[in-house]
Amino acid sequence: MHHPASIFALEVILNHILYVRGIYPAQIFKKRRIYNTPIFVSIYPPLNTYLAGVLRSARELLCRRELKCFEILLYHSENTPIESYMLQIEQLEPEAARQPAQDPHLIEYEQQLRAALYKLSERLKPLPRLPGNCQFKVHLHTTQTAFVEFSQEAQYQEFPWLQAETPQQMEARSGTVSLLPLVAVDNVGLKMQARIFD
User: Which domain does 70 fall in, by range?
Assistant: First the structure.
C-alpha cells in the first residue's frame, strides 16, 4: 500500500464528510482543488490539531500493517451514534508491496479518488439534515496488541487512546442499522461503507 497516498485519501474523505454533513460551520472550511476536483478542507486550528493526531496514528498503524478500518462516527451530544462511515483497509501482502508500482504517476489513483468523492457526495445528498449539537470522532480499528503498544508508547501519550465498543455492541444498543456501500479506492486499498443508525 502506498502509505502517503492512502493517508491523503483518508484526510480528504474525512474533511469531505465533516463539511457535507455540516458537523462544523461551512465558514471553517476552505475550498481547494485536488486532482481537478473541488474539495473543502478545515482551516480551524483546534480541529486540524485533532485531525493531525488521528492521521499520524493511522499512518503509524498502516506502517505496522495493523490498521484494519478507519471509522468516522457522527453522534449526538449524549453520545448516541447517528451515522458511521467505515473505510476498510486492505493492505497488500509484503511481497506484492515490493513489486514495481502499477500506477507510478498516480493517474488511476487520482481518477478513483475523484470518482469516490463524487459518488460520496451523491449518496450523502438525500440524507436528512443532522440535528443540532452533533459531534464526531474517529475510531481506528486495530489489533489488541497494537492497542496495548500504542497506549504505552511515550510519543502517543498526548493523544487519547481508549478501547471503543465493538460494532456488535454498538448495533445492539442503537437498534436498526442501514448499510450503504459508498465508494472504493482500490489503488490504495480503501473500501467504504456507511452505517446509518435509526
Answer: 3-197
Q: Do 81 and 75 contact (CB within 8 A), yes or no?
A: yes
Identify the pLDDT of residue 90: 74
C-alpha to C-alpha distance for 110 and 107, rounded to whole angstroms: 5
- The DSSP 8-state label assigned to residue 151 in this structure reads H
Q: Which three cell numbers stand for residue 124?
A: 450523502
Nearest to 51 by CA among 126, 117, 140: 140
The three three-digit cell numbers of residue 9, written as one number: 485519501
| CATH (domain of 171) | 3.30.900.10
pLDDT in tens, 29-73: 999 988 778 889 999 999 999 999 899 888 888 888 888 889 998
**SS3 (DSSP) at 77:** coil
Q: Read off the pLDDT band of 131 (50, 70, 90).
A: confident
Other residues' Cβ atoms within 10 Å of the Cβ of residue 154: 6
| Residue 79: Cβ within 10 Å count | 9
Write the burial class of residue 141 (CB in 10 Å: 0-12 exposed, 13-18 middle, 19+ buried).
buried
Number of domains in the chain: 1
What length is written for the chain?
A: 198
- Name the DSSP class of 187: G
Q: To which residue does cell 473543502 refer?
A: 40
Beta bridge partners of 180: 194
Task: Give dist(CA 161, CA 191) in Å, integer.
Answer: 24
